[in-house]
Amino acid sequence: MTAEFENAFRLHRLGRTEAAFEAYNAILRKNPQQADALHYSGLLLAQAGQNERACQRLEQAARLAPQVPEIWVNLAHASQALNRLADAAGALQHALALAPAQPEIWSRLAGLEVRRLAYTEAEQAARRALALAPRHGQAWFNLALALQAQGKLAEAKQAANTAHTLLPQEL
Questions:
Q1: pLDDT value at 1 more than 70
Q2: How many other C-beta atoms lie within 10 A of the C-beta of residue 83?
Q3: CA distance 112 to 116
């Protein structure tokens, strides 16, 4: 990591998003192919609701560093915000190919599949997340939604109760 990137990332972590974004852009003016600067500036754009621009930067970062699962997860998030659900699912599948033991990615995929009305796939993804992290509240919630949509009401109620126990303030 260069000192310039370390400084940009430090600003980002401190919540100084405008300064961080400008620091990432300064890096990109010198080296437009700097994957980390593309990734984190894309993340800042997504956090600011500029998802079209975020997707452009994150797609470029993913082409340059296809082995980094976090880039694919952030690309999925920005794509989903633009209602590009198939693109988001593809990005999450790519992330899972790189990091299959990450329950958060499985849970995100489950939530996305619920949104896409692909309830069997949502159930499978939620169950994969729970196999890795049995106390993952959001995965239980996604499982409950998938089961309910499939008419598996008793199981759905059980999953929803578990989600409520793990995430009482969120449900």
A1: no
A2: 10
A3: 6
